[in-house]
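Tokens for DUF8021 domain-containing protein. Go.
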Amino acid sequence: MIRQIRLASALAVMAATTAFAAPAAAQVAGVPLDMEPRSCDRACLESYVERYLQAMSDGEVSDDLFARNVRFTENGVQMPLGDEGLWATTSSPQGYRLIVPDVVTGQVAALVTVQEAAGSSATGPTLESDPVGISLRLRIDTDGKISEVEQIAARPERPLGPNAGPPSSPFPATGEAVEALGSPWPGYLEAVPEAERHTRAELVEVASAYFEAVERNTGNDYYPFTDDCLRYENGIITAGPEGSGARAGCREQLQTTLIGAVTSIRDRRIVAVDVERGVVFAFAFFDHRPINWSWQLGELFKVENGDISRIEAIFIRGPYGICSGWSTYEQCRSEEPMDVR
């Protein structure tokens, strides 16, 4: 079960988030705990991901799918929906799918890939399509329309002209690496026995404990991981047990190597909680002050018996201190967890 230290953490979360949310009975990250599920169930919410990606590939913004006042951001920048960002360049919606529906808030989050065709330069010929990794959030309103779209697009490094050299990164492109996984780990899709399920508050608390562990890590903090925890970042195993290909386990890595690496984790927004399957999806920014950049990421966690057993993230490097486009300035700078609103 959840350890006592986690209970203290949850109480701190509930106290802190009152600054960001209207008063309600009991809240975690700004979400009232007594909210009832909406009419759009798991299958309904999951279907919106496919419908959205197909619409983006087709370049079609229809009144049947989108609210008239739909708001869209890509990589933290608000754009017109329909002809900017990936909407202008997606050639096929086919790819990887890992979807986290939240039947209480009417949101669905996902790690996916699509195919993108881009030019070799501003006026050059179109290149062959490449997979692009996406951290995605959709909000479905009470009329059944998509009213909010938030996506982080992790594109491959592309040449700027016909004579450009090979990519400088030693790692594979995110979309390519994520698609190489084939399909999501089956454990993400398994329902937790009802008697063993965590409450929404407990799942939020465990995800928050992860961020606390990584931020300003000392090597002697509280690390909420199972012994066989496995972490994927942009499709690559970065921590895992012996035999996984990783250099160290999730806990051991923080105890030995990533000490002080992340100076702040802020704008922590829990955007989807799947109580039935024990999965939490969050957006956040990992700041690295000494080298003056921030990682902008979508990350999900599988929680089992109070600890994290799997982590998967898609992220990009951004300017230091960048905000999501969905938070106030104060929320962007805050290190407290909160709901997306």
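The domain at 4-36+192-339 is CATH 3.10.450.50 (Nuclear Transport Factor 2; Chain: A,).
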